[in-house]
UniProtKB/TrEMBL annotation, chains A, B:
This protein's name: TetR/AcrR family transcriptional regulator
Keyword Ribosomal protein annotated: no
Organism of derivation: Jatrophihabitans lederbergiae
PANTHER family per UniProt: HTH-TYPE TRANSCRIPTIONAL REGULATOR RUTR, MYCOFACTOCIN BIOSYNTHESIS TRANSCRIPTIONAL REGULATOR MFTR-RELATED
Cited InterPro entries: DNA-bd_HTH_TetR-type_CS, Homeodomain-like_sf, HTH-type_TetR-like_transc_reg, HTH_TetR, MftR_C
DNA-binding region(s) in UniProt: 29-48
Amino acid sequence: MPRWEPDGVERLQAAAFELFDEQGFEHTTVAEIAQRAGLTQRTFFNHFADKREVLFGLSSEFQQEIVREIAACADTLPPLDAVVRALQAAADTMFEERRAAVTRRHKIVDANPELQERELSKRAALTDAIAAALHARGLDPEIALLTAGAGMLVQQTAIQRWTQPAESRPLRELLSAALHSLRTTVS
Amino acid sequence: MPRWEPDGVERLQAAAFELFDEQGFEHTTVAEIAQRAGLTQRTFFNHFADKREVLFGLSSEFQQEIVREIAACADTLPPLDAVVRALQAAADTMFEERRAAVTRRHKIVDANPELQERELSKRAALTDAIAAALHARGLDPEIALLTAGAGMLVQQTAIQRWTQPAESRPLRELLSAALHSLRTTVS
DNA sequence: GACAGTGATTGCAGTTTATGAAATCACTGT
DNA sequence: ACAGTGATTTCATAAACTGCAATCACTGTC
């Protein structure tokens, strides 16, 4: 038999997800999470930089996907449209199929300021990555950052709607709508 | 003589500012800050919710000013212009005169991820406050949030430039320029 | 088949952040 | 005089994180 049960990281993530859902983030200790996963507190911190990170395993994957899509996009497409197309591609791949899980996670994060803070931090990192990808396409750095910020604004507006129970339109469509809203709002 | 030296809060802020500047945020303990201010660690936490908050004393004041300006603005002005005008008014009051201090603080925050995270959090709170102020003017909540987000994008772009040593134009002017950049970028 | 090397996990000691509860005591108003 | 206020302090404690050394199934090599 193997020395340890496999998939330690996934088990920790699952345990954390459950416990945060049951008791809330701040009433759950890292020791508790580790115990439910059949591991040690020390091992938790070997895998995650801090208690919050356990909820953000997918964000790096998401970021890579977006950047890849932007790089793959036709150079003739206006920058902001390129960003939104990339978001739409990622929406299909990473959001649409896991609506239940995404909404559940959204609810957990929404219930705790520390987690919201980390979410903002991830969003900022994604913004910078998008800006870098746009800059690689030849866009001026400052305009690139502005465009990336506008793209994230679109993303936020769309996700906001998409996570509401009443909403049934696909995220892809909501992204288009949000982009249109932004354009009329800003002009 | 008074039982305690006056201005405990200010002394803590000043001590923290100095120490973060000298040794960096993470190599400074709360006990150290309190000691330099002639107070106790416990007293520090009586005044500030956590170690980071000591650097964000002005953000609530800033937020109030912005919201006040927006409410005072003519109802005929397009929403985004109202927001940028409010930011310009606050820029004159709270930034232009303290350029040195603002830049120093900016440098400290820039050097530490935890502080950046908190900065983002304050920014998000300000965004929400602006959106609420716009909603109070009759704007649809979702459009209000989008407009507020666009306004903060303008603010960020302008501050970014303003804190660069080479830049000499007043913040007010940079805000106008950034708004123009956003408009051409998004359309 | 022995055997050195790898790497995920663990135990433990220690620092730091943060909080709750009770005590102090100059100052205030009556 | 004297009770009440409130900023501060002391003490105790939980919980988050870190550094370091040790474990030991697994891997490949000779």
